[in-house]
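tool=predict chain=A
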Amino acid sequence: MNARHDQVTDPEVQRTLLLARRGQAYFSRKLAELTDAELYQASLLPGWSRAHVVAHVGYNARALTRLLEWANTGVESPMYATTSQRNHEIELGATLPAAALRNLSEHAAVHLTVEWRDLPADKWTVPVRTAQGRTVPVSETAWMRAREVWLHAIDLDNGGRFSHLPDEFVRRLLPEIAATWSTRATTGADQIPALVLHPGQDDVILVTGSGQETDAAAADAGAADAARTDVAPMDVYGSWTDLLAWATGRTDSGAVDATGQPAAHAPRWL
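tool=predict ok
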């Protein structure tokens, strides 16, 4: 029998699929290192046990599979019927016996990767809707899954580290979080401080703060500082992984301000 391979031809999607599958392998390895009793102990996420994390990651795979089925068949299949249904699913899943939780994680991940593998090349741009209501091409499911498995492997709190994350993942996610903060600030959805992140000697990531506005006249005149605000931005320094850990709310360790003191807590990301 001939081996079956991914049908997607876009190189960027192929790279992101590989990143997601590597993340799944990492998550599965950390899960396998936990005893059954340890599954029901606290995770890094407030109010969640490790069982909650495992249930969430397993049901996330099923939800993303529904988006792939939507793209493939043309029949709308949302990730979740409602937010309450999603939350109830996780709470119920966290009470499953350890063997059932492990099976959920494994089987849901296999089903997802099969759907990725079998999706025809011309279907990868089909628009679907995320749980947050965003309309995205179905190819976005690869990046959505990569974020889930890499970060939640750390949340299992049994040896996963931000230093273990692939550089490609870190350098993609940190600017994405910064862009999310800027969007929420400019739309008034949240109060976000103006930030200048320094994840490397020559790397700078800007975050537009709430209340900042663009001076169109200055921009037209070619002024370098078109954005203006009454409050000076806060500089935050650290390695790429330090700043990602800080930005995702996992730890403040490693992120410092201009005086070398621990940086203020990062704004809410999700």
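The chain has eight helices and seven strands. The chain has a mean pLDDT of 91.
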